[in-house]
Amino acid sequence: MKMISAIVFAGLWTVSGVSAYAESIDNRVTVLTSGYVQPIDGRGFLPGAQTDGARKVASTISVVQGEDIVLIVDPGMAAPKVWGEVLVTLHSLNIVPKDVTHVFISHHHPDHTTHLGLFPEAVIVDFWASYKDDLWEDHPDNYELAPGIKVVRTPGHTDEDASLLVETTEGTYAFTHLWWGPDLEPQEDPLAEDPDGLKKSRQMVLQQADWIVPGHGEMFKNPQHNAVNVTKKQRDTLVNAVQNASAAWGKAFNSGDAVGCASAYEENAIMIVEPFGTFTGRKNIQSFWGKLISQGYTGVGYDNPTLEVINAKAAVITSKWEMNKAHGVITKELWVLQEDGVAKLKVDAFEVLGNK
């Protein structure tokens, strides 16, 4: 979804720490399903605390696409039918299980490993080694799997814990079990084997990550991420490019031009539309907008949008939105400045909340 009204800029000078190196890397991160840990009334919550304990547990499952690598993170427990939905989403990203080259497991608890067998061609990677067929290969700490993708040891929850750090255009993602859920929760891990080690590992990750994908919850932005300098000229250039591109998209949509809508996206952009699915590449994105336009949808507008400059080449927009027949929320529009000075969408994630 794009803006057709003026942007309300918020936090323009609160900029995440993204290196110039990261800006040149085309790694892509997609959270396939967000996990959870939920108590069950009358049953013991903590594992091992009592013999009849029970709880609802699902792991956060993600995919990372980079240079010659397709990596699944923590393919573990999930509610009925969720894994079927995960495979459908992977297919929409043009990924089938045999295409997955690596699986990263944050630690060895079964709730993060129950579906390893879905990816028969993958190399399994943990805190100290990789495994394929009958080959066990040790690796050091800070092990780089591919450009901008590395495994770092983060003991605390268990001694075998590791985190995956992925550099992208929009910052560095940390896939980790140092926290279970959003907002750096829990503050104290009741299952931590090494509470002091956990604190040290958390400090290390907070110094490096812009986005945190916790073991059992929704991704969140690191509230302690370091700022980097973006000059006023760089900021103004990026903001103007995003404004112009957004306005062009709005004009195309309201005039019924699906081709014009699709031209706002990078060639291999990802559009995530809840609850309708994931669309990869301009052709599929154009088809989505074309069908919507043919059904009479028009008049899109944004309600109290915010724009955050991530670095000199990338900005993220979030907002509520509405049009003549529906309304919803934009959770992430990632705009990236191209070499020709035009801003295009790399990731477009939004949710339809209802009809009007």
Describe the structure.
A hairpin with a 2-residue loop joins strand 8 and strand 9. The chain starts with 19 loop residues before the first helix and ends with a strand. 20% of the residues lie in helices and 35% in strands. It folds into two domains: 20-221, 4-Layer Sandwich (Metallo-beta-lactamase, Chain A), CATH 3.60.15; 232-355, Roll (Nuclear Transport Factor 2, Chain: A). With 356 residues, it is of the alpha+beta class. It has six helices and 21 strands. The strands form four sheets. Strands 1-4-5-6-7-8-9 form a seven-stranded mixed β-sheet, with helices on one face. Strands 10-11-12-13-14-15 form a six-stranded mixed β-sheet, with helices on one face. Strands 17-16-21-20-19-18 form a six-stranded mixed β-sheet.
Low-pLDDT segments, ≥5 res: 1-22
The first-to-last residue Cα distance is: 17 Å
How would you state the average pLDDT, rounded?
A: 90
Strand pairing plus helix content: what structural class? alpha+beta
How large, in whole angstroms, is the Cα Rg?
A: 21 Å
Strand order of the largest sheet: 1-4-5-6-7-8-9
> What is the total number of structural domains?
2
The total of beta strands comes to 21
CATH topology title of the largest domain = Metallo-beta-lactamase, Chain A
- Architecture per CATH nomenclature, i.e. the level-2 architecture of the largest domain: 4-Layer Sandwich
State the major sheet.
Answer: 7 strands, mixed
